[in-house]
Design brief:
It is a single chain. This protein is an all-alpha fold and about 130 residues long. The chain has a single domain, classed as Hemerythrin-like (Four Helix Bundle (Hemerythrin (Met), subunit A), Up-down Bundle). It contains 4 helices and no strands. The chain has helices at about 5-35, 40-65, 70-95, 100-130. Helix 2 runs antiparallel to helix 3 (about 70-95). The protein is elongated, with a radius of gyration of 16 Å. The two termini are about 15 Å apart.
Length: about 130
């Protein structure tokens, strides 16, 4: 196996693990908000989710640029939309308004799930095929 093929396979596996962590944090946020857990617990999950998502998106976007990915702009737009939503949830939480957190987090979970199943899967195929 060539070095580039090994790199591509490792990149896909690493990205899949990152997606599982990101989805796990988002599920934890949905659960905590749905159970009306205390503000500190929800805030901690939000902080971790935002920091993790920022790092994950930065690494994924760097890999897309390194690979001259043809769908880069649209893919990054999804990332920006997700981060805007997360920051909006965090702002509502900071203002002491937990009423919309559970619903917005659940919607975001659906959006991210669709993003992973479509845009991220397309990028993984692009990387796997060595394009």
């Amino acid at each position: 196996m060539s070095n580039i093929a090994e790199f591509n396979a490792a990149s896909n596996a690493d990205t899949d693990r990152e997606h599982e962590i990101q989805l796990g944090l988002l599920r934890a946020l949905c659960k905590a908000a749905g159970e009306n857990r205390d503000a500190a617990a929800i805030g901690e999950i939000l902080d971790r989710l935002i920091a993790y998502s920022e790092a994950h998106f930065a690494s994924e976007e760097l890999l897309m640029r390194l690979k001259s990915y043809d769908d880069y702009e649209d893919h990054v737009e999804d990332h920006a939309q997700m981060m805007d939503t997360l920051r909006g949830i965090a702002a509502s939480h900071a203002e002491g308004d937990p009423s919309l957190i559970a619903g917005r987090a659940t919607e975001l979970l659906g959006f991210i799930g669709k993003h992973i199943a479509t845009r991220d899967r397309r990028f993984a195929d692009y990387v796997r095929n060595g394009l």
